[in-house]
Amino acid sequence: MVMALKIQAESARLQVVAGYESGHTMVFVQSDPCAPFQRLYAAQTHSQPILSIAILPSRDCFLSSSADAVIAKHPLPVAQSVWNTELKPFKVIQTKHSGQQGLDVRSDGRIFATAGWDARVRVYSCKTMKELAVLKWHKVGCYATAFAELADCCPVKMEERLQIKREDEELPTKREDEEVPIKQEEVEEAENQDEGALTHQPLAVTTVQQRREVEAQSTHWLAAASKDGKVSLWIIY
Questions:
Q1: What pLDDT sits at residue 194?
Q2: Backbone angles phi, psi at 132, to 5 degrees
Q3: How much is the pTM?
Q4: Over the range 182-199, which residues count as b (16 or more CB within 10 Å of their CB) and which as e?
Q5: What residues does 2 pair with on adjacent strands?
């Protein structure tokens, strides 16, 4: 039985990656719309049913996870090669944490995340497959993860985040989720004192708000969903 699927199209070619209840992963390619699908890759790296599959942005490999504690990195062939007819998995790691699913790869292809039955979200390196972080917040099992995709903007560097945070802390009466309304009595008081005093502080607030909006739109947010019905948001590196 098929447990997980991924498909990608490039020109007239279709690639389908399938994960099976038996623990097998397979890659099928159709080079022409009128031609049948060819199976170019098959491997059994898992002893339990496949739970999730994710294709890396480079489109040359994919990841698989299952009900066992194994995460595997596989090649993603695009055509049959007479020089390499027996493709093998690139890397297979034993994480010692069974039931990791919801695989998702960040848009820059550097890290990927899994959601675990043990209520933990784990972050791994795509290159070395080493565990980089364990995110603890949910109390019951997690089942899905998702990274924000950044297409037309660059990620905000950590130094810029710290600068925005420092500037935000300099505004003593402004909470993160609070708007800054101008009360009528403040307007009257400002008119009696100095007209310039009315416009100076709102301008500073608007500048910080704009910078925070830019940061939010250019951050690789990681979302995780759990059986408790809650979604957590994280910033990873």
A1: 47
A2: -105, -30
A3: 0.73
A4: eeeeeeeebeeeeeeeee
A5: 20
3-state secondary structure of 124: strand
Quick: pLDDT tens for 134-177: 999 999 999 999 999 876 545 445 455 555 555 555 555 444 44
- pLDDT value at residue 181: 53
The model's pLDDT over 70-84, given as tens digits with 9 standing for 90+, comes to 999 999 987 665 445
Helical ranges in 25-100 per DSSP H: none
DSSP three-state, residue 13: strand
Distance CA 41, CA 194 (A): 75
- Span 107-134, pLDDT tens digits: 999 999 999 999 999 999 999 999 999 9
Which residue is it, tokens 């009315």? 198
Strand-pair partners of 100: 116
Q: For residue 22, how many other CB atoms are within 10 A of its CB?
A: 14
Q: Give how far the C-alpha of residue 230 lies from the chain's centroid of Cα atoms, to the nearest Å.
A: 17
Cβ neighbours of 111 (radius 10 Å): 20
Please state the φ and ψ torsions of residue 69, each to the nearest 5 degrees. -100, 20
Instruction: Give the separation between CA 1 and CA 9, rounded to whole angstroms.
Output: 24
Pick from 120, 169, 162, 163: nearest CA to 145: 120
Other Cβ atoms closer than 10 A to 24 = 17
